[in-house]
Amino acid sequence: MINQSRRKLIMQAGAWPLLWPLVQHGMARAAGGTVPKRVVVIFSPNGPVMERGAAAGTETDFTINEFWGPLARHKADAFFFTGCHQAGVPFGKHNEYGHQSGGTGALTARTTEGTNNSTGPSIDQFIGQELLKKGIVTPKRSILMGLHKNVGNWGPWYEAAGKPALPMTDPYKILADIMPSVTAAAGGNKPVGPDKLLLRKNFVLDAAYKDCKELAGTLGAEAKTLLDFHCSNLDSLQKSVAKSLEMPMSMSSPGCVETAKPNTTLAANANFDQAENRDEIMKAFTDLTALSFACDVTRVVGLSFGETASRFSIPSKYGVPSAAQADSGDSGPQHHAWTHAYDKAVAAPKRVALKAFYNWYAEKVTLLIDKLKTTMDANGKPLMDSTLVLWTSELGGDVGQLEPHANFNIPVVMFGSSQGTLKPGRLYATKDPEKISSLVLHSLFVSMIQHTGLTDINTFGNMGSGPLAWLRG
Amino acid sequence: MTASSELRRLTRAEYTNTVYDLLGVDLSADDRPKELVIQGHSEIAAGQKIGYEDSSQYLNLGDKVASSAAAKIDADMKCADAACYKIWATGFLLRAFREPSSSALLDRYTAILSSTAAGATHVERVTAFLNAVLVSPHFLYRKELGTTAVLGDATAKNMNAYHVASRLSYLAWQSMPDATLFAAAEKKTLLDPAVRKTELERMLKDKRAQKGLRAFVADWMGLFDNNLGKKATTVLTGTPSDLPQQAARAFDMLVDEVLTTGANPRFSDLLKTDQVFANAALARVLGVTATGTDLQRVQLPSKDRLGILTNPLVIAAHTKESGTSPFPIGKFVYENLLCEQIPSPPASVPKVEDEAALATTLRQKLESITKDQPCASCHERIGPPGFAFLPFDPVGRFKNSDAKGRPYDTAGSLLFEGSAPMPFSSAADLSTKLAARPEIQKCISRRMFRWAYGRFEADIDEAGLKTIENTAVTSGTGVAETLQQIVSAPIFGQVRVR
After folding, report:
1. Nearest to A403 among B7, B135, B351 (CB)
2. d(Cα B230, Cα B236) in Å, to the nearest integer?
3. Which residues, in sequence order, are CB contacts of B420 under 8 Å at separation 6+?
4. Nearest residue on chain B to A121, judged by CA atoms?
5. Least confident among A309-323, B359-373, B475-489
6. What are φ and ψ of residue A422, in 5° steps?
7. Which of B143, B159, B354, B496 should one mutate to test binding to chain A, selecting the residue with the greatest count of A CBs within 10 A?
8. Residue in B7, B124, B344 closest to A226 by CB
9. d(Cα A426, Cα A80) in Å, to the nearest integer?
10. Which residue in the set B46, B138, B354 is minimally distant from A324, CB to CB?
11. Any idea what DSSP says for residue A30?
């Protein structure tokens, strides 16, 4: 419910009497669970190629592969999966190789069905959309951040069928986008009036939504479908803005603290698409994720290390050797160029390069988990207690392989116990890909969905599965 | 059956130009929601969904523009009562929404100007009004709605004159209609093809026509993003930090120079032009001589580089971050210049050793692994034109030999259905010969049709389209005449509805 003293202040601002029905409308739709449950979805491109997965051994007695070495300090909080077939790709019935099928299906659990794009939303967008439908409204439906914008298609992030979602790459712009909500949440008891910008946005969106619905009624079926999608997003956005006006939330979090700039030494005009800046950008993204959760700006964050087939590089100080020009045309200290280095003569430097990339990804994931463990939510508990963090890729690998662009043996790690309801610190190693391994990841996605409170959703993507009961131990 | 184009979301260029012409605010340096590229086209209406983040971006951009323009609008409005607001809003919304507003819509917007919920001061209320306009679907989409049935064509309807005016202005200017077009729309004279042709002649003499031509060329060349700044650090070493901006400006100047000067210029002239625009920094990338920081016209000194296919902006759009990318370039040549669809590669492709370890050249190796079916059916087409560009690095710098000092083999033949192969010796030679091919003229005509209508052609369109294509080939029609043929066709006043 809206803070009473703050509502009074807003009403004193003069605009409130007319605005109130709009915000009340938003509040009515905002009823949700009392303890926010959150998810982070992380995508790294190109796969490990020469390794099968992050861990090997038995369910409870396993060792972490050196590619994923930095994850060791969070081993007890993680579920490791090896041998799994990519969700959305029925074994033996579909293309099982390549960046396109892998990229468009990795987070959507669907195939392209002959198009260039996925035929449904990615898991992050889906959860954000469904939470909103259930009245669990936050100032941002979801936040998608990325280190590298690829220039081609086949990205893993989708708002809807045929509608890619593009990660934001500039931490300054991300902070500016959430700042009004952070300010409202963090400074709720300060003697300030309502944010004029938020009030205006709320008003504007209400007008635009009315225009949208009226215009939709004048169109043919195809154009109406196009506009209905737009109208629904205006409605979602208006609900999000209205939510910001209700701030502070019923519970304020000690981790929700206003900040003047992102946590980075990079200037606002830095090139956020350059490899040398990526440590600093990731530091900013990590803090922005924790800040967004602590202020309940969103329950869903997507984080992209690069898009499918991305020519992704990391700072030169990590010493990634340079690949010679490959058949894909690229070369240099890039993850993708090395995945196309097939000559046995370069197997050794290739492994050095791939290990460096995976160590770097794993270190960044580990730092994110650290941050979520040390940032407290409104209950005084670590954010990580109520957050699930999934990390996956579009391609898999196997020991000693040089050329797999396979959509199986997908490396998957998920962190979190969902407030003690799940039992992490275990390895799920399947050797029966033909029958079940595709459904494992479908089920994992469903479990993530249900973790957020959407307990009536039992399927995601193009195959029904139900949740993954194994997670509960 | 083709898709509907009743609603055409403004492209980034159209949005930017329209905001500027309506309110005088320049958003060209801002991030704007991107259009979805469909089969090499950015203007196909059916796939242009506006999502949640797009809506958020439009909202923020709208507020930026509104905040910037409100004070001046408020001062110019000189209104103090609702009746005055309504008169002002009637005129403003006509321009912003590109048609007269319904009385309900007009009342709703007029009410914003006196609503305390919209803002405490009048300037704040004007700001809210402007932002509401800029976020409204009436602004963000080009509406091409049907009114009456078209005799003998069940899938088409006649558009109202205002929507015809918009179709005309966005074709010629990539922006909203001006007062003359609005006046013609009110009189419904734009429903007459002859009047449209006359209006187009007027519009092509306006400076805004440069924006229309630049946008079409950018779409034709696949310049949906400026990729020059996205190359690997090793590739960007030695290039100016503002290479993307400088190259884009130089490219626009070249398009203006070739397409708006001389007698009867043709789009294909861009393929064989021996001119570039460069300053000292850009000249080092291009391998030419220029001094100072101002962009100036420079004659290309050799036949290594010729026409816009060898322009850094175009090369960067179709190459990876490093190395060379022969197949993407070859695919681009076939799809964008010859209007042939090349299917995506199969999921599992044969491996090839690294170039450093190759006894043969990269070209020889790639040819050897793609010479058999199923690879050959596509690669015998896209390979040769792609190999012609091997000497160019991802930012368009030219070098004669590969890392081992072996000269690049850039010769090949372009295959055409129904006619003899076209041999060429280099990228420059390929460009020159392509400029003279009838297939190029036909493809440009076909792309212009899609550009004008925001959809792919239907079977029912083919007869009219072939007339335009054939005229382009046999009569050598130039830019202006091709556009005139399109706007004077009866279907320019119609829309397909599904």
Report:
1. B351
2. 9
3. none
4. B51
5. B359-373
6. -110, 160
7. B354
8. B7
9. 6
10. B354
11. T
CB B424 within 8 A of CB B387: no
Quick check: B440 pLDDT over 90? yes
Average pLDDT for B362-368: 86
Residue A211 has pLDDT above 80, yes or no: yes
pLDDT digits (tens, 9 = 90+) for B335-359: 999 999 888 766 555 555 545 456 7
Does A456 have pLDDT greater than 80?
A: yes
Cα A232 from Cα A234, distance rounded (Å): 5
The encoded tokens of residue A266 equal 């990079």
| Interface subset of B 229-288, CB within 8 angstroms of A | 229-230, 232-234
pLDDT of residue B332: 94
| pTM given for the model | 0.89
How many residues belong to chain B? 498
List chain A residues with CB under 8 Å of B233.
Answer: 274-276, 313
Q: What is the mean pLDDT of residues A378-382?
A: 89
Token pair, residue A446, equals 């469903």
When CB atoms are compared, the residue of B137, B322, B354 closest to A341 is B354
| Helix (H) and strand (E) counts in chain A | 11, 13
Whether chain A has a CB inside 8 Å of the CB on B52: the answer is yes
Distance CA B68, CA B72 (A): 9
Which residues of chain B make contact with A149, given a CB cutoff of 8 A? 230
Q: B163 or B233: which carries more pLDDT confidence?
A: B163
Distance CA B219, CA A140 (A): 34
Range scoring the smallest mean pLDDT among A103-117, A179-193, A395-409, B170-184: A179-193
3-state SS, residue B227: coil
Kindly report the nearest CA distance between residue A345 and chain B, in angstroms: 8
pLDDT at A187: 65
Q: B14 to chain A, minimum CA–CA distance in Å?
A: 19
CB contact under 8 A, B118 and A203: yes
3-state secondary structure of A100: helix
For residues A88-92, give the mean pLDDT: 65
A140: left (phi over 0), alpha (psi -120 to 50) or beta: beta
Q: What is the mean pLDDT of residues A299-303?
A: 97
Percentage with pLDDT > 90 across chain B:
69
**What span, in angstroms and rounded, lies between the C-alpha atoms of B434 and A82?**
52
In chain A, residues with a C-beta closer than 8 Å to the C-beta of B232 are 311, 313, 332, 334
CB atoms within 10 A of CB A35: 14
The per-residue pLDDT for B352 is 56
What stretches of A304-437 show up as alpha helix (H) in DSSP?
335-339, 347-374
CB contact under 8 A, B135 and A204: yes
CA-angle at A382, arms to A377 and A387, nearest 5°: 90
Place of tokens 């706007």: B487
Distance separating alpha carbons of residues B323 and B356, to the nearest angstrom: 12
pLDDT band at B389 (very low <50, low <70, confident <90, very high): very high
Strands B494-496 and B153-159, by their bridges, are: antiparallel
Percent of chain A at pLDDT > 90 equals 52
Q: Is B51–A162 a contact, with Cβ atoms under 8 angstroms apart? A: no
Put simply, the chain B residues between 5 and 44 with a CB less than 8 A from any chain A CB are 6-7, 31, 34, 36
Asked whether the beta carbons of residue B137 and residue A215 sit closer than 8 angstroms, the reply is yes
What value of ipTM does the predicted structure carry?
Answer: 0.92
Tokens of A309: 């087939």
- SS3 assignment for B287-346: CCCCCCCCCEEEECCCCCCCCHHHCHHHHHHCCCCCCCCHHHHHHHHHHHHHCCCCCCCC
Per-residue pLDDT, averaged over B25-50, amounts to 91
Phi, psi of B41 (to 5 degrees): -125, 140
By Cβ distance, the residue of A177, A332, A342 closest to B232 is A332
Q: A413: closest CA among A84, A89, A126?
A: A84
Cα-flanking dihedrals φ and ψ of residue B458, to 5°? -100, 165
